[in-house]
Amino acid sequence: MSIQYEVEQLADSYGVADSFPKDFGYGEEEADIEDSPAPSDSKPRILLMGLRRSGKSSIQKVVFHKMSPNETLFLESTNKIYKDDISSSSFVNFQIWDFPGQVDFFDPTFDYEMIFRGTGALIFVIDAQDDYVEALGRLHLTVSRAYRVNPEINFEVFIHKVDGLSDDHKIETQRDIHQRANDDLADASLEKLHLSFYLTSIYDHSIFEAFSKVVQKLIPQLPTLENLLNIFISNSGIEKAFLFDVVSKIYIATDSSPVDMQSYELCCDMIDVVIDVSCIYGLREDGSGSAYDKESMAIIKLNNTTVLYLKEVTKFLALVCILREESFERKGLIDYNFHCFRKAIHEVFEVGVSTPRPVGPQAVGSPCNKAVALNGTPRSTV
Amino acid sequence: MNALVALCHFCELHGPRTLFCTEAVHPPSPDLSSQAGVPVPGDRDRDGDREGEGLTMRANSSATQTGEMCEGCRSLPVSHPGFVSIDDETGIRFLSHQHPRQSQLFSVVRQACVRSLSCEVCPGREGPIFFGDEQHGFVFSHTFFIKDSLARGFQRWYSIVMVAMDRIYLINSWPFLLRHLKLTIQSLQSTALKVFDSEQGVFPQRAMRMNSVFSPAVLPHQRNGNAARSLTSLTQHPNLWASLHSSFSWLLKASGSRLTEKLLEGAPTEDTLVLIERQTEQEEEMSCWEGAEGGGSKHHQTESSLSHDFLCDHLNDLPGPKIRSLRHLRQVLGVADFRQLAWHVLMGNQVIWRGADPGLIQSAFTELKSLLPVGCVRSVPYSPQYEEAYKCNFLGLSPDVPIPAHVSSSEFSVLVDVTSEKSCQVSAAGDDDICTMYQFSLRSANTQPTDRGPSLLNKLEVALSNENLSVDVVSHCLLCLKEEWMNKVKVLFKFSKVDGRGREDTQKVLALLGATGPGEEDNVRLLKYWMTGLSKTYKSHLMTAVRGGERSPSQ
Questions:
Q1: Could you give the 3-state DSSP secondary structure of residue A33?
Q2: Cα–Cα 20 to 30 A to B236, which of A317, B142, B516, B535?
Q3: Do B60 and B66 touch, CB atoms closer than 8 A?
Q4: Which stretches does UniProt call biased (Acidic residues) (chain A) (predicted)?
Q5: Closest chain B residue to A80, measured at CA
Q6: B538 near B269, Cβ under 8 Å?
Q7: What is the pLDDT of residues B84-141, one digit of tens each?
C-alpha cells in the first residue's frame, strides 16, 4: 500500500521537548516526583505488578516513553517502585507505578494498604512465554489482598509477550489462565472480584489497545465522549473515529462501532507520521515551538479510497478519523461538525477544570446534563 | 563505635539481599555491654522486644534465603568459617560472614538492605544517602553499580550500608565514611569494568540479544538462566571477600577511634561554684595552719564539720526524731507557722531554734537551708551561747541559753522554742509523732505581713500542699524555683551593682523580671539578700567582663 500524504500546517509545530520530555535514562525525573509528593499522590494510580521479568517496565517505557520495543531488552531490572507521572504531557492524568517483581510488598514492613488505597487500576502482567503457574499464584495473592483493601480497583490481567505464540496457542493460553484464575477466586469465595484479560505484546499495537481500555475505564466522562463521537461520525459520513492521547497513542474514546485492530494501527501510524514530520520540519530555526499545537492537522489519502483525517482537539488530544473518499468531498461539513465537536469536548473538560479536578468517578454528572448542540441539532445526552 | 557494615545486592532473581556483613564484637565487660547503642552481643533482653517483627523478617528471609540462594546472592558458602580480625588494643573482634551472627541484628540489617536498594532513592541513583529511625537503627547507605555483561541493563545494583543506633555519630562520620567507601567502591567498579570490557570484546552481548529475540530457537525464555553471577566472578578478584573484610573492619575501627563521646554537664550552678570556693578557702587555711604548728588538728575537725554542714549528711548519726522534708516540717509546725518561718529564712533573717534535741534542730535546718542558695547559708548547728546575726543565719541553741534583748525585740530574727511534752519522754517513739513529743512555739518581733510574698514561697507552698506531688518532685520544683530566682539575682546584680543604674531603671528591670506585683517588697528583699550569696568567681567575672566590654567599643 503506497501512502500519499499531505501534511497541512506544519508552520509552527513540533517540539520534542514539549511532548516527550522524558529521556530514557530515568535519573532526574524520579527526584522531581519524590520532591512533590503531595500533588502527585492525590492522583489515582495505575499499578503495574507481576513476577520479575514479565515485562512491566517494558510496557511502561514503550507506552508512555516511546521506547522502541527492541530497546527494552537492555532495561535493567527494576529495583524499586518507579512512580511515573505523565500528566504534564499527557491527557492520562494518572500516576503509573512500576513495581519490582522480586520484592514482596505484602511483607509487613511495607504499607501495602497505602499502596492500594489510592489505586484506580491494578495491571497484573503475566509472561505467556513462561510457565505461568507461579504467576497465577502471585496474581491470586495480589488481587485478593488488594481487593480487601480497596474493592474499587479495576483488576486487569495482561497476558503478555504473546508475540511469540501462534494464534491457537494465544487463545488456548488466555482460556487456560482465565479459567484457573477465576477458579482460584471462586475457591476463595471472591466471585465479586472481576478480572479482565488482555493478550498483549510490545511488538504490535495490542499493548496500546489494552492500555487504552484500562485507561478508558478510569475516565468518568467516557459515556459523554462516546456519545459525542457517535453523533459526530453519523452526521459527517465518517466510518471510524478515535479520540487519541497523542503522547501515549492510547485512545481514550471511540464511537460505538467495533474497533478492528488494523484501523487502530493505521491511526497510530498516522499520529507517528504527523508528529515525526512536523518534528523535523515544523520547529522554528532555534528549535523552539511544539510538534503538536492548535494548528496541527493532517489529511492522508490512501490509494484504496480511504482518507485519514487528524485534527487537534485539546492540548493532549487529537481526533483521528477514517472515512471514504466520497464522504470527504463534503469537507466543509466535516470541518464544521468538527468545530462543533471540538467545542463540545472543551465544554466537557471545562467542567472538570472549573470544579475540582476530575479525579475519580464523581465528576461524571455535570457534563452529561449539558445539552450539547452539535451540528445544529440540540439533543439531550445519555 | 557500635556499628555494622554490610554489602547488599539487588539480585535479579531474589530482590534485595545481604551479601556480606562485618560486625564488631566487644569483649565481655560490664561497662561496654551496658553502653547504649547497637545491641551488644549477649544483650539478650533486646531479643524480646524485637521478636515480633524480627520473626516475620526472619521467617520470610530464612525460608527464601536458605532454600533458594543463587550465585549472585551468596558470598561465603555456609561451610566457610568467616573472617575474624582482633584489635589487640581494645580486644574488639571484627567478624565477617554472609549474615550477622546475632538474630536480632539480622532483621535490622535486612531492613537496611531492603530500604537501601528498593526504597530510599539517592538522586542520581549512585551515591550516599542517610535514613533510619530509633527502632531499626540509622543507616548510611551508598548505592553503586557493578558492570555485568550478562545482567539486564548490563549492570547490577549494590549498596554498602553502615548501620548504627547513634544518629549523631553516624551523621558526623558522613564525610569520613563517604571518602573511604568511595575508595572501596571505585576499586570494585574498576576491576569489574575491566572484566566487562574483556567479556564484551569476546562476545558482544548487545548484538547477541538483539538477534536472539527474533530467532524463535531461544524460546522459551530461560527465566532462571545464568542470571546471577557472583561478585567474585564479576571482578575476577580471588580474595575479594577477605579484602572487603579488612576494609570494612578498618572502617569500623577507624570510625570508632575517630570520634569519642564526652558527656558535657552544662555550666556549673552558683551553688557548686560557692562550694568549690569554700573548699579552696578551707584548703588554703588548712595549709597555713599546718605550716604554723601542730595545733592544726583541732581546726581540722571544725573544718570537716563545716563542710559536713553543707553536705548535711552527718546528722543522721544523731539519735532521735528528725524532720524528713519540707512537707514534713510544714505538717509539724502547722501551715501558718511554716509560712512565717520560711518567710524569715528567705528574707535573710536570723532563725534561732532552741531545744534539747540537737538532731531534730539540725534536721530542721537541713530542710530550711534547702530554701536558700548555698552562698547565703551560714549556720551554727548547736551552740552553748548566742551568736550574732552576722555570724550565722541559722542558730541552734540549748534550751537554757538566754536570748539578748536586742535580738528578741528585733524584727530581723525569729525564735523557735522546742519544748518536750512531759508525758512522752520516750525517744524511741519514732518519727511520726514529733508533734506529740514536742511543742513548737514561734516568736518574732516582726510586724510585716508574711502572707504576700515572695513569689517563690507562694509557688513552693502550692507545690507543698499538693499531695499528688512526691517529696522528690517538690524538691526538684524548689531547685527550679531557686535557679529561676538566682538568674534574676544575677540580672539585678549586673544591672544595679555592676552598671550602677538608677532607681527608676532598676524598677523597670524588676518589672521585667516579674518581681513586681503583690509581693513586690518581699521579692526585692529576697533578691537583695540572695545577691550576697553569689559566688566570688561570678562577681569578679562579671566585673572584669563588663569592664572589658566597656573598654573595647571605645577603642
A1: helix
A2: B142
A3: no
A4: 26-35
A5: B118
A6: no
A7: 999 888 888 999 998 888 888 888 999 899 889 888 877 777 889 999 988 888 999 9
Nearest to A50 by CA among A133, A128, A125: A125
SS3 state at A300: strand
* Helix or strand holding residue B3 (H, E): strand B3-11
Contact yes or no for B9/B134 (Cβ under 8 A): no
Nearest chain B Cα distance for residue A223, angstroms: 39
Could you tell me which of A45, A164, A172, A50 has the C-alpha nearest to residue A101?
A50
3 state DSSP class of B70 = coil
> Which residue has cell 536570748?
B403
Q: Which of A208, A241, A247, A209 is nearest to A309 (CA)?
A: A241
Strands (E), B449-541: none
Buried b (16+ CB within 10 A) or exposed e, A117-143: ebbbbbbbbbbbbbebeebbebbbebb
How does B152-163 read in b/e, with b if 16+ C-beta sit within 10 Å?
A: bbbbbbbbbbbb
| Chain A hits for B122, Cβ within 8 Å | none
B548 Cβ contact list (under 8 Å, min separation 6): none
pTM comes to: 0.62
Task: Check residue B136 and report its DSSP letter.
Answer: T
Q: What is the pLDDT along chain A (382 residues), one digit of tens a residue?
A: 444 444 444 433 333 333 333 333 333 333 333 333 334 445 778 999 999 889 999 999 999 888 999 888 888 888 888 888 877 777 777 889 999 988 888 887 788 888 898 899 999 999 998 888 999 999 999 999 999 999 999 999 999 999 888 999 999 999 999 999 999 999 999 989 999 999 999 998 999 999 999 999 988 889 999 999 999 999 999 999 999 998 888 999 999 999 988 999 999 999 999 998 988 888 777 777 778 888 888 999 999 999 999 999 988 899 999 999 998 888 999 999 999 999 999 988 887 665 544 444 443 333 444 434 344 443 433 3
- CB burial of residue B7 (10 Å; 0-12, 13-18, 19+): buried
DSSP string, B262-278: -----SPPHHHHHHHHH
A68 to chain B, closest Cα gap in Å: 12
**CA-to-CA distance for B433 and B421, rounded, in angstroms?**
11
Set of chain B residues whose Cβ sits within 8 Å of the Cβ of A131: 220
DSSP A110-160: S-HHHHHHTEEEEEEEEETTS--HHHHHHHHHHHHHHHHH-TTPEEEEEEE
Q: A178 vs chain B: nearest CA distance in angstroms?
A: 21
Residues 325-364 of A with CB under 8 A from B: none
- The DSSP H or E segment spanning A319 is strand A317-324
Q: Which amino acid is at A378?
A: P
Nearest CA to A256 out of A242, A244, A266 is that of: A242
Going by the DSSP 8-state scheme, the letter that residue B425 receives in this structure is -
Please, what is the Cα angle at A144 between A138 and A149, to 5 degrees? 125
Residue with the three cell numbers 504534564: A88
Q: In chain B, whose CA is at the least distance from the CA of A132?
A: B223
d(CA A289, CA A14): 6
> Backbone dihedral region of B334: left (phi > 0), alpha (psi from -120 to 50 degrees) or beta?
left
